[in-house]
Amino acid sequence: MVRNRLAEQAWESLARTQVALMRRFQEDFRAAGVPMRVYDVLCTLSRHPGGRIRLRDLNEHILLTQPSVSRLVERMEADGLVSRGGAPEDRRGTVVTITGEGRELLRVLGRDHAAAIADHVGTALTPDELRTLRALADKLRAAQRAARHAARFADGPR
């Protein structure tokens, strides 16, 4: 019972902190004239081999629903930040690739965003606390991946 209450309190604190920080970061992106979700897509693409990812997989890495991701990617393509094409292995899926213009925008936004993170997070915690926070967040995320994986296979192969 105590552990359940402690888990609830920890989650509420984490969630409220995340919301407070995201509001500050969104203000920074608004001031730059670029939605934070555009940065999120560009950043995600840059972390994948060749700056490419299938559209359906992109959805797993960012905080938007599939229809919203598709519309956002269409707008980003129109702005020259990404390109879309068929998946070479099966031609049914869509692959999204960051363009040179997208990489340049990411470089500029990333520099400013890193400075904001250092200011809003790095000044509030010691280096040891930052390492602990990263380890705890990684552990929570890994537990959620494992739970999703177990749920997929709970009913046996499909």
Automatic annotation (TrEMBL):
<dbReference type="GO" id="GO:0006950">
    <property type="term" value="P:response to stress"/>
</dbReference>
<keyword id="KW-0238">DNA-binding</keyword>
<dbReference type="InterPro" id="IPR036390">
    <property type="entry name" value="WH_DNA-bd_sf"/>
</dbReference>
<keyword id="KW-0805">Transcription regulation</keyword>
<dbReference type="GO" id="GO:0003700">
    <property type="term" value="F:DNA-binding transcription factor activity"/>
</dbReference>
<dbReference type="InterPro" id="IPR000835">
    <property type="entry name" value="HTH_MarR-typ"/>
</dbReference>
<keyword id="KW-0804">Transcription</keyword>
<dbReference type="InterPro" id="IPR039422">
    <property type="entry name" value="MarR/SlyA-like"/>
</dbReference>
<dbReference type="Pfam" id="PF12802">
    <property type="entry name" value="MarR_2"/>
</dbReference>
<protein>
    <submittedName>
        <fullName>MarR family transcriptional regulator</fullName>
    </submittedName>
</protein>
<dbReference type="InterPro" id="IPR023187">
    <property type="entry name" value="Tscrpt_reg_MarR-type_CS"/>
</dbReference>
<dbReference type="InterPro" id="IPR036388">
    <property type="entry name" value="WH-like_DNA-bd_sf"/>
</dbReference>
<feature type="domain" description="HTH marR-type">
    <location>
        <begin position="7"/>
        <end position="142"/>
    </location>
</feature>
<dbReference type="GO" id="GO:0003677">
    <property type="term" value="F:DNA binding"/>
</dbReference>
